[in-house]
Amino acid sequence: MAHVSQKLAETSIKPYTLxxxxxxxxxxxxxxxxxxxxxxHNALNARVFGSVxxxxxxxxxxLDLLIDPTPKISLMDVAKxxxxxxxxxxxxxxxx
Length: 96
Description:
- The protein has a single domain, classed as Beta Polymerase, domain 2, CATH 3.30.460.
- 48% of the residues lie in helices and 14% in strands.
- It has 4 helices and 2 strands; from the N terminus they run H-H-E-H-E-H.
- Strands 1-2 form a two-stranded antiparallel sheet.
- The longest helix is centred in the N-terminal third of the chain and has 18 residues, at 23-40.
- The radius of gyration is 17 Å and the shape is elongated.
């Protein structure tokens, strides 16, 4: 593996890294997508708490959401919403 890294460095080819963003930025720019994920997975009334609310978030922080489950929610809904939220945000910047 070190050989591959050395070759990349020698050729000036940099491995692609995903852009990161603060969760507060993700909330501002992806609010509709977040709501859609929450509602599609049998939950309502998503509320933000934690570092985003306090203005202490940074790149690498997560987006903490508190939701109201509907009677139809299952563990699969929770798992699917997590996977979908990670794939919709370049850096996996929110947890659902």
